[in-house]
Amino acid sequence: MNKKPRLEKESKGLQDKPSSDMQEISNELKDALRDIPEEKKKELLTVFKQYDIRRSFAGPIPPPEILQGYDKCIKNGAERVLKMAENQSAHRLQLEDHAVKEQLKQSRRGQDYGFAMGVICIIASVTLAIFGHDTIAGIIGGSTIIGLVTVFIIGKKQQANSQRD
Q1: pTM for the full predicted model
Q2: Residues 6+ apart with CB under 8 A from 56
Q3: 151 and 114 in contact (C-beta within 8 Å)?
Q4: Could you please report the per-residue DSSP string of 76-130?
Q5: Residue 44: which residues within 8 A CB-CB, separation 6 or more?
């Protein structure tokens, strides 16, 4: 059995009633097909009928059968779809790379500020102790050391938890 006659029959049936088929498709598809010549619209509608347009697939590109349909309807249609998927993938990778770099910068900046604050508090604590303000020096120095140790312990636990996930 040859499948070409079936496709030709569908095309002929489509040519007999082009306006009613255009009414069956969604407004979004009408907008997408607006600038395409009438003959190409007919071919696209044939492909849409042959492959249920509600059919879903996993991944950024359609199955080969659908890509072949795009090539039949639009010059280099499959290549255009694949190029679009490649561009989208490259864009997504670029965004992820940028986000990771920015998170690393933010983390490093936080560590630098935390270190600076720790050093300033310890210097202040030592200075206060030298001038006889032992109680305040102990509070500032103790809370600084306890705070820094707590932050590092919590950070290490979170890091270990994220590596397990």
Answers
A1: 0.47
A2: none
A3: yes
A4: THHHHHHHHHHHHHHHHHHHHHHHHHHHHHHHHHHHHHHHHHHHHHHHHHHHHHH
A5: 33, 36, 73, 74
Instruction: Show the tokens assigned to 102.
Output: 């920015």
Amino acid at 52: D
Could you tell me how many residues make up the chain? 165
**In this structure, how many other beta carbons lie within 10 angstroms of the beta carbon of residue 11?**
15
Write out the two tokens for 12: 């002929």
Amino acid of residue 16: D
- Give the H or E element holding residue 65: helix 64-73
| Average pLDDT rounded to a whole number, residues 78-82 | 89
Chain-centroid distance, C-alpha 82: 17
Q: Cβ(126)–Cβ(137) under 8 Å? A: yes
Mean pLDDT for all residues in the chain: 77
Contacts 24+ apart (CB under 8 A), 37-41: 40/73, 40/74
Dig out the tokens for 94 from the structure: 């670029």
